[in-house]
Description:
27 helices
Amino acid sequence: MKCFVKKRMVLLFLLPIIVLGQTQKKDYTKLSYDELHQLYFANEKDKKVQKECAQAYLAKANRENISIQKAKANYQFALLYYKTDTNKAIMYLDSVIKYSQNTGHKFFPAAAYCEKADLLKKQFKFKEALINYNLAEKIARKTNIDYYYIVREYIGTTKSEDLGDFNEALDIYKECYRYYKSKDLRNPKLSRDYQSVIFGLADCYKSLKNRDSTTFYNKLGFRESQITKNEEYQFLFVLNEGANQIEGKNYKVGLDSINKALPKMIEYNNVGNVLAAYFFLGKAFDGLGKKEIAAKNFIKVDSIYKVTKEITTEFIDGYPYLITYYKNLGDKENQLKYITTYMTIDSTLQKNYRELNKLVHKEYDTPRLISDKEKLIASLNNDKIVTYWGLGVLFLITIGAGSFGMYQYQLKKKYRSRFEKIINDTAEKEGTGVEENKEKKTQIATTKIEAIGIAEELVNQIIEKLDDFEERKGYLESNITVQMLSTIFETNTKYVSKIVNVYKGKTFTQYINDLRVEYAVVQLQENKMFRKYTIQALALEFGFNNAESFSTAFYKKTGIKPAYFIKELGAEI
Length: 573
């Protein structure tokens, strides 16, 4: 399981950063190196300003012909492209290395070699990544011993998380652990690095199935992070111990820990460990024999993978589970979907230095996967011939529609208007006081009791129970029916149905679906993590049985599809 809170972008601590407000000054030529550096990082959300700062920094360095400043300017350019263009970022890092060689600088070129290695890992070039890490540690050993041990930890992380060399990684982590134990851990940065190394030790022992040692280091890390009040690390150790308990088949204990840690991982937008939490929830529920809930959690793992395109060997066991699960249900389409995804991941990981043969053959060997995939495709093709003809005709009609462009423009305009209305309505609803809502409900109840034709006392009781049902979000149960609710309310279905019809002004099914959609709208606005899910995973999260029913209900309530709503929320940021 990855720590996913590693140190990145080392330039953030190379110089003291004083956060400045955005400035209207356009004449960057009069600014000093420190002022340009500070202005660059004060505008992290404005790439245009950052680029102008980097250009001014480089121009000044070229005029004055100072090699180390040229290196720092190129580092700023590397940061600009770090997430969007890996090859371009590597090109600038090579320039950093070129200009900072033999300068004796405390961080360069060691930091540039480290960041280049990190980018090479993203390209699955692990051999090249390790070469760059080794160059970084060779230089750091002479110029900055603290940074040397940070590089050593990076190497340990690569060996454990990417290459599966747990014993080698364990030796490296122990070396780092001894170093930090000898330091003054009142220093916040050293303390954080120490906690990261403790996590590495715990995770390596977990991978080696040494449960007791894993628990020891998880507890140690938890205590250390409590001392420094590092909440994210505290719950990271809780999550890791939960995974350790599940691997040891202590499913209920493990579930308790992971359910405590998961909301915090979501809060900190720690995507990698959100994926880890859902994976181990799946394993736990599988161990408890709750196969449907296990499948839902493995689907969430797949949902996050499809967005990030990042997954390690540790977390791919969910795919054989889903393949078998849908095979037993006779669901060919989902069976084919997860076979295809599994084979794609397997092919990618094997091609890029990761040895997965043992893992793959444990559940499904490759020839069997290919055979199953071909059979499913043949079966589904026979079922879809008519559909393909229909799509062909639709395509020809679409090509011939001259007014399609204008129609799309008007439709987007209409959808945008509906999106803005949803946002405004949500804000107004949140601004409405509790007493005001109660007063409105009382007025509605008074005017409609006579129309229901049921005793006033009974009506009020059921209305109160409906309010309580809404308050505790009972509508998120995927199998809720009017019969189930009537049983809970200790009344009959006719009364509940009629009261919902008159009091809520809708059918029971529509009532439940509207509550779910209203909840989904709020959660998607408040919780960015949900925006990373697939529609299928969101459907399960909000009480629907599948993506289609969720999309249909969402559109019926709001006038737009959930995918469009999520896209527009991202554009609003």
